[in-house]
Design brief:
Number of helices: 8
Shape: elongated
Helix content: 25-40%
Distance between the termini: 68 Å
Radius of gyration: 37 Å
CATH architecture of the largest domain: Roll
Number of domains: 2
Largest sheet: 7 strands, mixed
Strand content: 25-35%
Order of helices and strands: HHHEEHEEEEEHEHEEEHH
CATH topology of the largest domain: Nuclear Transport Factor 2, Chain: A
C-alpha cells in the first residue's frame, strides 16, 4: 500500500498546554464529549470519509496505528491523516465502535495539560481492534479534538490466540506443566510400568536383572535413585537380604521373581543360595496389590 504524504513543513510539537489555548471548560461531561467524538469517528470510518476523520484531530495531532488500518506500524500527523484515512478506510471496514471497560475520564499528566482520555473497542474486516484517544479542548474552535489517537489490531476473527488463560503452561508449549505431567506418568493410568523396584538400605547387595549394557542398567548401577525406564518404587526395607522384585503391574504380586547377585558377598546377602520358600509370601504382603 502506498500513501502519498504532504510535503508541508513539520509543525511544532509543543504540548497542548492551557497557556497555549487548550484550557478545558469547568463543566465538562466526559461521557457526552467522548460519545460525540467517537460517533464522528465511526461515521467517518464507515463512509470512508478521510476529511471527516482528520477533522476530529487537533491542528498538531498524531495518529499512531499498528496493523488495525494500515497493516503496518505507522505514525501520521494531522496534515497527512485525511489522505491516509481515505486510502485505508474502504478496505479496513471498521465498525462497531464502543467504549471499552475503561470509561472516559479527565486526566492531567503534566501541570497545565489536560486530556479527556477515551478507550474504545471496534471491529475490522480482519479482527477485533482497540483504540485510545487523548482529546484536548481547542479554545479557538470551542470544540474537543484528538491530540493523539492510537489504534491496534488485537486479533484475527476465528483464530484463538495462545495468550492469557489460553497460553500453554508446560515447557515447549505442552498443555501441562512439568509437575502435572510427572503426576500423570506416576499414576500409570494408561500404561503399566516396565520395572517395579523395591528400595534397600544397601543397594550393593542387590542386582536387578535388566537388559545388559543398556541405559537403564547403567543408570541403575551408577545411582541408587535413578532408573531410566518407566518404573515404580515401593517402600524401603530394613534388610538387604530380601533381594529385588522385577515384575509387571498386570501380574499378581505373588508371581514376583527374585533377583539375587551370585557374586555378592555372603555377609551382605546373608546367603548366596536360593532364598527360603517363604519369600513369595513375604512379597505378597509387602508389595502393593494391583487391581
Amino acid at each position: 500500500m502506498t500513501i502519498t504524504l504532504s510535503t508541508a513543513p513539520p509543525l511544532p510539537t509543543d504540548l497542548p498546554t492551557h497557556k497555549a489555548g487548550f484550557a478545558p471548560p469547568a463543566d465538562v461531561n466526559p461521557l457526552v464529549v467522548a460519545q460525540r467524538w467517537l460517533s464522528a469517528v465511526e461515521r467517518a470510518a464507515i463512509t470512508g470519509d478521510g476529511e471527516l476523520f482528520a477533522d476530529q484531530f487537533a491542528t498538531d495531532g498524531f495518529w499512531r496505528d499498528i496493523l488495525a488500518f494500515t497493516n503496518d506500524f505507522r505514525a501520521i500527523r494531522t496534515v497527512n491523516i485525511a489522505p491516509a484515512a481515505s486510502r485505508v478506510f474502504p478496505t479496513t471496514q471498521a465498525r462497531d465502535f464502543v467504549f471499552a471497560d475503561t470509561l472516559p475520564s479527565m486526566q492531567s499528566p503534566f501541570e497545565g495539560v489536560t486530556f479527556l482520555n477515551v478507550h474504545f473497542n471496534f471491529n475490522t474486516r480482519v479482527g477485533p481492534a482497540y483504540g485510545v484517544a487523548n482529546l484536548v479542548f481547542e479554545e479557538a474552535l470551542e470544540d474537543w479534538k484528538a491530540y493523539t489517537v492510537f489504534t491496534l489490531l488485537e486479533g484475527v476473527h476465528g483464530v484463538k490466540q495462545n495468550i492469557g488463560e489460553n497460553r500453554a503452561r508446560g515447557e515447549h508449549n505442552t498443555p501441562l506443566c512439568y509437575d502435572d505431567t510427572r503426576a500423570l506418568e506416576s499414576a500409570f493410568d494408561d500404561k503399566d510400568p516396565e520395572v517395579l523396584i523395591s528400595e534397600y538400605n544397601n543397594w550393593e547387595a542387590a542386582d536387578i536383572q535388566l537388559e545388559p549394557d543398556t541405559t537403564a542398567s547403567r543408570s541403575l548401577r551408577s545411582s541408587n535413585r535413578t532408573v531410566s525406564r518407566p518404573s515404580l518404587s515401593t517402600s524401603r526395607f530394613a534388610s538387604a537380604t530380601t533381594g529385588v522384585c522385577v515384575t509387571s503391574r498386570s501380574r499378581c504380586t505373588t508371581q514376583c521373581t527374585r533377583a539375587t547377585s551370585p557374586s555378592s558377598p555372603s555377609h551382605l546377602l546373608g546367603q548366596s543360595t536360593p532364598q527360603p520358600a517363604s519369600s513369595p509370601t513375604f512379597w505378597s504382603r509387602t508389595l502393593m496389590s494391583w487391581s
